[in-house]
Structure formats: structure tokens, C-alpha cells
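Recap for those who missed Tuesday's class. We walked through two folding examples back to back. For each one, the amino acid string is listed first and its predicted C-alpha cells come directly after. Nothing is annotated here on purpose, so try labeling regions yourself before you check the end of the notes.
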Amino acid sequence: MKKLFRIALFSALAVLTVSGQEIESVGPAKALELTNNPTTYLVDVRSVAEYVLIGHPVMAYNVPLSFWSETEATFVPNDEFVRDLQARFKPEDVLIFICRAGGRSLRAAQAARQAGFAKVVNVTDGFEGKRDVDGHFTVGGWKPAGLPYTYDIDPKLAYQEKKSNAASLVRI
């Protein structure tokens, strides 16, 4: 019985080690510095509406982890997220993921790693940063740090909408 328990424990630990490999996290300034490498890409995983209306790093590709659904009045997962990444990037590219405050980008980095992207990085504090004592997103983050961002949409970087995804999702 002890031997069976040890085998089960080691198997579980092995699965956790492979699937739960730690994702490297960097601050916004380091992320900007890393984008100087020609095979390193900043991937903004916020919804299209957030990317457009709140602004985004000037070099960031928009590949949403989720979309805003008007019919459900909530975010719904982008079931094509991994395929969207694979259509734009090579498995050997370095992908740096950014979102609003760091949570979605970590999930995106984990999904990319599981899909075979060898080098993935999460931007801690995201684009807007963490909340201050008044509840505003001003602590850390790309935008509060004064790093280059824009509201302009570069068609090469914008989300590449598929007709099959269009029905009830807001794509402003």
C-alpha cells in the first residue's frame, strides 16, 4: 500500500512539475526592453474593446483571451486563443503577455506554454496596474509607468477577427 501511495504521489508531482512550470514574470519596463529582440513579441490578451478604448502598448499584438458578449453581458472565453497564437507566432518566438493587471496574462502564458511555445513571459501589474487605496488602477503597470502606449489601431497588430467568431461579440 505504501509503495502504491508513493508511486501515485510521485506521478502527481511529475504532472504538476510539467504542467505547472513556473512562468517568468517581469515588470513593464523589463518587458519593453525585451521587445528589442526581433523574435520577441508583446501580446495584449485583453478584449478588443479594452485594447481600443483604454489604449495599448504601441508594439502590442491583440490576441484576446476572452471577448465581451452583449447577449450574456459578460466576458466569454476565446475558444480559438491558442490557434490565434499559432497563426501569428512561431513556437520558438518569445511571447510576453500583458493584460489589465496581470491575471489574464498569466493564464494566457500558461496556455501558450501548454501549446508548445517554449519561452513565455508574464507582465506583472499589466497595462493599467494594481488598484490604489481609492480603487483606481494606478499602481505599477505599463500606462502609469509612462511607457509608450497609443489608442491608434495598427492593422498588423490588431486582432485578426474570424467570421465564425462574430455573432454576438462586441469588437469595438
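Example two. Treat it independently of the first, because the proteins are unrelated.
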Amino acid sequence: MKRTGVSPVIATLLLIVIAVAAAVLAYIWIIGYQGTLTQQATATQLQERIKIEAVGYYSGNKLNASVRNIGDVTVNVTAIYVYNVTTGTVAAYKILTGSNAVVLAPGEVKPVPPIGQEVTVVLKPGVTYTVKVVTQKGTEATYTFTYRT
């Protein structure tokens, strides 16, 4: 019985084609991945980022939040909301426009809303609330706490 196989020339050509195809696929994947990393690094440097450092509740049912700009660009805080987590409702809110607007340079901390213009809200002991601060471009920061007397 005569056995025949693939000739050495054909086998060598098939191996070369497979190696070239694998190299091309690896090259395409690496270039695409490198582009993704470059875009993420650029976008991260220019993002708005804010953080609520603390929430203050004062006599007369006045509430404000100390907000820090932890991003690399100036942010314009335009709203503050107080949510009752238990009921899922908005307990109070304040839209900040014109002279009420709070502009934060990178690294700066300010009360939102400004002192003297606090949000008026009645907090109930033992109830959990979430304070949300929103910038003009839609960046949000939240702070959740349970009110204790």
C-alpha cells in the first residue's frame, strides 16, 4: 500500500502563511489596544470630578455640603438635591444660577449652596438621606447619611 502525504514544499508554505496571519492579527490587536489606552489617559486628565467632603445641618433647618473639585478643570455646580432614601422622594433641592452659582477651581473646597443661601429641609431622626450635587456638565457626587439628633 502506497502512502502519500503533503509535500515538504506545500507544508512549508502553509506554515509560513499561518505565521504571517498570526503576526498580522497580533499587530492589529496591539495597535487597537494602544489607541484605547491613549484615549483613556487623555480623557481622564480633562474630566470634571467632584467629591462631597461633608454635609452640615444647622439651626433653622438649613443644610449645605462642602464640595471639593478633585478634577483638573474648573467646575460650575448648578444644583443640590436631598433625597429621603426610605421613601425614595426628594426632600428638598436648590438650583444654583447667577449669583447663587458655585464655581470651583481645581483643588478648591466651597459650601454648596453658599453660606446664607442653604437648602431649607426638615430632617427626621433615624431617617437616611442622600445629598447629591450636580455640575453644569452633569457630573454628580453623592453623600449618604442617617440623621441623628
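Answers for example two:
The helical segments are 8-45.
The CA atoms of residues 2 and 8 lie 17 Å apart.
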